[in-house]
């Protein structure tokens, strides 16, 4: 479970500058769900052995009348999701009324809050922070997000109470079973599906073994096979929540994706594909998770709507075409059982082991079928392949001048390996190493 850091503050204090410095923005995911807090960005960062998640809450309106409302709308949910709040202020602007209003909120919120004075470049630290003691949030910490001044030291300090990442992400894989994450935007039918999956006749649900932050892990057994379902929909907490907006959490979703072996991404045939579905799928892919696609609410759908959904998927989800696609009705239970064989197959592919001998033979066959190109008068050589990891499978290829290998050739190799090894439902990664 990564610690979650929320960046909070007025517009223009430097939140997105700090966000970009802390995260590999390639991973960033934008929360743009209708009816939810807008403009929140989520990204992953790492300091040494400590991974963390950062939320940029977007600007809080400087409009004094609206600030309570804006605060509630923009940031309260993010603050709720966070373990740590970095409250950012601007050394050049001094204390503004909006800063005071935000400080009042944070004081009653009791979340661990750090007061961060940004844009301290060109000033003595003591002078930069002097005004901000008045906010009553303890020691102000001077940084300059743009130049990196004190940023690493601050984050080290902030993360001190949190443990280092453990080596084994999935201990005892076999005993505890395939870990299935059920993810999707609000209202696509996740809780209905979770209930359906657990409600099947031959399913035995065990006592809740562990509840993580909010994503709940539900161990169960089906036909003698153990599974763990990672529920992001919060079915067990229904009584505590009233609004869809409250029950949905991007952090839970990101945690579930990181901690599952196979992600079942639920899409809604009635509302069609939307941008957020693509963001989620992209995150599943960059995380290297195995994937099964479930297009829900297929019941009673007009023929025309069905065709449109199929066409949309074909056109826009080409990047996920290695995944099995199911058209289901969680409400009626139609085709829900078919998800299991796909989940098993994706898991088997994601965790398969191939000998160096097998992979090297396969590589050599591929190379003799289709030679890599010449570079600077010398042919690129690919000699040997071995497996460097699983879930997702990583194939390490050794040769010469591999840096110059064209993308088209890498695609050829990926497709060949995928086909010959019958890899289905998981991304497959390649790493190329040159001897000289
Ligand atoms: P946000 O609205 O809080 O996300 O603020 P931005 O990150 O967009 O930054 C607002 C402006 O402040 C931009 O022009 C940044 O280049 C500038 N800025 C951010 N950090 C620093 C800093 O450490 N020093 C200085 N001088 N400018 C900064
Ligand atoms: P979640 O927010 O993703 O957990 O979605 P819910 O499971 O709460 O479902 C949202 C709404 O969609 C509810 O009104 C469900 O009854 C409805 N729903 C879920 N699955 C189906 C389905 O397969 N067909 C139809 N027609 N409605 C469904």
Automatic annotation (TrEMBL):
SMART domains: AAA. Residues 3-166, 178-351 form the EngA-type G domain. GTP 1 binds at residues 9-16, 56-60, 118-121. GTPase that plays an essential role in the late steps of ribosome biogenesis. It comes from Kushneria aurantia. Signal peptide: none annotated. The keyword Nucleotide-binding applies. Keywords: GTP-binding, Hydrolase, Nucleotide-binding, Repeat, Ribosome biogenesis. Associates with the 50S ribosomal subunit. The gene is der. It comes from the Bacteria. Pfam families: KH_dom-like, MMR_HSR1. GTP 2 binds at residues 184-191, 231-235, 296-299. HAMAP family: GTPase_Der. This is GTPase Der. Belongs to the TRAFAC class TrmE-Era-EngA-EngB-Septin-like GTPase superfamily. EngA (Der) GTPase family. GO terms for molecular function: hydrolase activity.
